[in-house]
Structure formats: C-alpha cells, structure tokens
Amino acid sequence: MLNSIEIMKQHPVNMITMDTKILTYKSGKKGVRYLFECKDPESKAPKYIQFSDHIIAPRKSSHFHIFMGNDSQQSLLNEMENWPTYYPYQLSSEEVVEEMMSH
C-alpha cells in the first residue's frame, strides 16, 4: 500500500469516478467501495483509489478507509488485511481507540 496522505499532498490530481462495488465480507456484513481512477499517464499519484465508509445508504459516517495502488482495482478490492482508516480530527486518542475496538 502507498502512503495516501503524503502522495495526495505532493501530487494532487483529478480522479474519474469509475464504479461503485457492494462487497459481502466473510463475516456476512456488507460494505461499499467507491472506485476512482487517474487517467493522466504523467501523474505521480496512484492510478487507482477506493473509498469506503461501510455505509451503503446515505448517512453520516464515523470513519472511512482509503485504498490506493497502481496494480488494479481488483487488487484493491481483494485487500482485506490492511485498512487505512481515517477519523475526524476532533476525536481524542481515547475516542479513536474506542472506535477501532468497536469496529
């Protein structure tokens, strides 16, 4: 996985929305991933980005995940071990830990 924060700070790019995938995990829970792709061959930003907040229907999210890579959308969809997670900056360290433990 690429360091998403540093890459996007250093290489801003326009991404094209490609698709939305609803996934069913081994646990039986469902989640959604929004797929984006960079079409600029000169860009140093990741070619593929996926955004997930676990929420299929519109509502407020407590956190979200961003997956990035250059291989393929499918390789990112297959990623089930490494979930780069982002929380609102207002949360304290204790609140983030509590969120993570209940996730």
UniProtKB/TrEMBL annotation:
Q: Reply yes or no: does the keyword ATP-binding apply.
A: no
Question: What positions does the domain ZinT occupy?
Answer: 18-103
Q: What keywords are annotated for this sequence in UniProt?
A: Signal, Zinc
Task: Give the Pfam families listed for this entry.
Answer: ZinT
Q: What domain of life?
A: Bacteria
Q: Name one GO molecular function term.
A: zinc ion binding
Q: Where are the transmembrane segments?
A: none
Mind telling me which Gene3D superfamilies this protein's record contains? 2.40.128.20
**Protein name as annotated:** Metal ABC transporter substrate binding protein
Q: Which organism is it from?
A: Escherichia coli
